[in-house]
Design brief:
The structure holds two protein chains of two kinds. Chain A is an alpha/beta fold. Chain A is built from 28 helices and twelve strands. Classes of the chains: A alpha/beta, B alpha+beta.
Chain lengths: 660, 107
């Protein structure tokens, strides 16, 4: 095996970008925040739901720093990893800054060699040196830099150590041409690929043609797409056919990775001075405690309860109450309404702004007074869990429960958060690996997970009747949840992903890092989600004004009276539930306090309203995260299902003679 | 003592009888001559990865290798319940039992 390097001088100038690349949990975002400070914008990468953060690095001639999603495998498999490949291929970064885990050098280098092959200036930050030292791992970084002919800088980002040296290295980074020699068959194919590329006038691609060829030979979709956009369809088809024919005979990806692995093993053997010890004290002890069959479960219960308390009770209860009822209800809204009515002469326009379904009184109040506090508490809690390394442990512990639902433990986060706010939980379905899993979790959230606003009213009403009422409600909802999940898992095509997660060492989260992340995510919320609320409000306003709403309420009356056995007024309450889930439950609460509902009717109404379509904001979010077809499909499934279950429950309880 | 991690394999036999009665039978049929699976290695012991079962999807296999769990590498088993946790160098990964049963190892 051979490797030859040639360094070319390339100076960093302003106006270019730096791609920050690395495995998950190696301190990428901490380093990103150190280099960029407060000027950070998080947005979805075009055409995906993957978050990419961008910021200006002041110490680096104001170059744009792009924080790409963490990669586990490269060539990429997941959507996240593909975004990283796309940033490199489509945005032509001037420098690649790889953040690597110093204590797991082999793994870091497997990515390094692939980045070095790309021919762009490459700087490697060997991060988390403190953890490596604590475990007795020692790496000869100078020798490593010499062998790969790249810049290697040891850093400890959480203590801001080595950052100055890193900026110096990035400024003087030069293009590296690492070239590993692959088996003959791969080399022949690479030569043919490069010839074809040159013949098509694509010799000047953003990364070296050889590395593009290596990606393409590993059946990577990002390079497929890149080539499809640039080559003539005939040539592209011919090349694809040629690759498939070879792939039928040999596993090229395996062969290429194997060669890289051997190359990395050879280098690691020389530069790892001491491999360290396997046991390393308190952090490991605590880590094991969190996955212990008994203590782990106790910690899990405590964490979930704290999460629910912070987001569901403190955020959705205390804060919402203070903002919505007090600040907006008593101060801002009457004041705004007064001014609008005074200034706007047309009644319909005033109605559009401050009426019952007004853009301000409903849309903005909803977005700022109701959802904003929930989202803020949620993002804070999420940031802490993300940075502490507890998130994957949560998935590992709850995996068993989700197996029967065709999911794996990673679904626990959206499901628990759904109890706080279904709309925001729908966003977190992004943690799931496949489209199929995201769809399944979204469906279960929309159908059977009541949000904290609704849960409060439902619990209050049922507790007023009896414990049996509460048990009937919860068991029916749980049975529906598991039955639908079980069925959907078998009907939606695709395989279940078996759980496989890395358990990073537990760390104390850095408050400033959590705060920066939270602020950037809140900015995203205000820019991207608030318009959805306004759109939803506009739709409700138009339905109300055109009379469509009252027609729907009238049309649903026979269903409510004859099938569910509820009074006619309940029909309006169900439709209010679409506006805001708790409104529906509150409408029924008022009816109960007027003595209009028997215990049986309360239980039936609560079950139906829980299963009934989620609020308009979450429907909008489903449409945004998935697509409109999915959102409407879910509505078409959930609406009849909730009524069927409600009607059947009503009949069974009547037959049993319960609560008449 | 629940807090002593050195003995984390102790209650295992009882728990296994509870939770994996059905699975154990199925697994014996799957084991190949002379090899055992990652799920059979006792807690605290080390094993060499030999090969992957063909039924592991490509993406999963690449992911396992990316974590360093590839043929020829040594892993240490940390626990089996509620999930299998293994350590490779300084990386800890958690994997589902059914996945651990598809990875062949030797002592």
């Amino acid at each position: 095996m051979q490797c030859h390097n040639t360094a070319q001088a390339a100076t960093v100038s302003s106006g270019g970008s730096i791609a920050l690349v690395g495995h998950p949990n190696v301190g990428k975002s901490v380093l990103f925040n150190l280099l960029t400070g407060q000027h950070v914008a998080i947005s979805n990468y075009p055409g995906t739901t993957v978050e990419v953060a961008r910021g200006t690095a002041r110490a680096l001639a104001d170059m744009l720093l792009v924080d790409t999603p963490g990669v586990v495998t490269f060539p990429p498999h997941s959507e996240d990893e593909q975004v990283t490949a796309r940033v490199i291929l489509n945005e032509s970064p001037q420098v690649i800054l790889q953040v690597g885990d110093a204590k797991n050098l082999r793994r870091t280098l497997l990515l390094t060699v692939q980045l070095a092959e790309m021919g762009l200036p490459l700087v490697v930050a060997l991060n988390m040196m403190d953890e490596a030292m604590a475990r007795g791992v020692r790496v000869d970084d100078r020798q490593l830099a010499r062998r790969l002919n790249i810049q290697v800088v040891p850093t400890t980002a959480i203590h801001a150590e080595g950052v100055d040296a890193l900026t110096v290295a990035v400024r003087s980074a030069s293009a590296c041409h690492l070239s590993i020699e692959y088996p003959q068959v791969v080399e022949a194919m690479l030569a043919e690929f490069e010839r074809q590329l040159a013949a098509s006038g694509l010799a000047n691609c953003p990364i070296s043609p050889r590395s593009l060829g290596l990606l393409w030979l590993c059946s990577d979709v990002v390079s497929d797409q890149w080539l499809a956009e640039r080559l003539s369809p005939g040539i592209f088809q011919e090349m694809m056919g040629w690759r498939e024919a070879r792939l039928a005979e040999i596993d090229l990806a395996d062969m290429i990775q194997h060669t890289r692995q051997e190359f990395v093993d050879e280098i690691s053997a020389k530069v790892i001075v001491s491999a360290g010890k396997a046991d390393w004290g308190f952090s490991q002890w605590l880590g094991h405690l969190t996955t212990h069959p008994i203590w782990g479960m106790a910690i899990l219960a405590l964490v979930l309860f704290s999460l629910y308390w912070f987001v569901g009770v403190f955020g959705a209860g205390t804060l919402v109450d203070a903002l919505e009822t007090r600040l907006f209800g008593e101060w801002i809204n009457p004041w705004v309404a007064g001014w609008v009515n005074h200034l706007v002469p047309w009644p319909w326009a005033a109605d559009l702004l401050v009426g019952e379904y007004g853009l301000w009184t409903m849309g903005m109040t909803y977005a700022l007074a109701l959802i904003l506090p929930i989202v803020t508490t949620f993002f804070l809690a999420f940031g802490i869990m993300e940075d502490s390394g507890y998130l994957p442990r949560l998935a590992a512990l709850s995996n068993r429960m989700f197996q029967s639902l065709g999911l794996n433990g990673k679904a626990v986060l959206p499901m628990v958060l759904g109890l706080g706010c279904v709309t925001m939980a729908t966003v977190t379905t992004r943690v799931m690996e496949s489209r199929r899993e995201r769809l399944l979790v979204t469906l279960l959230l929309a159908l059977a997970v009541p949000c904290s606003a609704q849960l409060g009213v439902v619990m209050g009403m049922l507790a007023g009747i009896s414990l049996t009422a509460m048990l009937i409600w919860s068991s029916v909802v749980l049975v529906v949840l598991f039955a639908v999940g079980w069925l959907a898992a078998r009907l939606i095509p695709g395989e279940r992903n078996q759980l496989l997660v890395e358990l990073p060492p537990l760390r104390l989260p850095m408050f400033s890092n959590v705060l920066t992340k939270t602020l950037a995510r809140l900015e995203w919320y205000l820019k991207e989600v608030v318009p959805l609320f306004l759109l939803g409000t506009l739709i409700m306003f138009l339905m109300d004004k055109s009379g469509a709403l009252s027609v729907l309420i009238e049309a649903a009356k026979p269903l409510v009276v004859d099938w569910l056995g509820l009074p006619a007024q309940a029909s309006a309450a169900f439709f209010m539930g679409f506006l805001r889930r708790d409104f529906g439950a509150t409408g029924l609460f008022v009816m109960e306090s007027q003595g209009l509902l028997s215990p049986l009717q309360v239980v039936v109404a609560m079950v139906t309203v829980t299963l009934f379509v989620p609020c308009i904001a979450s429907v909008m979010m489903i449409a945004k995260e998935r697509d409109w077809k999915t959102a409407l499909g879910m509505l078409a499934l959930i609406f009849p299902l909730s009524f069927v279950v409600g009607g059947l429950l009503s009949r069974s309880l009547t037959w049993l003679g319960w609560g008449l | 003592m629940i807090l002593e991690f050195g003995n984390r394999g102790k209650g295992k036999r009882i728990r296994r009888r509870f939770f994996f009665r059905r699975r154990r039978k199925r697994k014996t049929a799957r084991t190949e001559a002379g090899l055992m699976t990652l799920a059979d290695v006792p807690v605290g012991a080390c094993a060499w990865v030999v090969k992957f079962c063909e039924r592991i999807p490509r993406a999963r296999r690449d992911q396992l290798q990316a974590y360093g769990l590839s043929p020829g590498k040594s892993v240490r088993i940390e626990q089996h319940f509620p999930v299998t946790i293994v350590q490779i160098e300084h990386i800890e990964i958690a994997l589902e039992r059914s996945l651990a049963e598809m990875i062949f190892v030797k002592d």
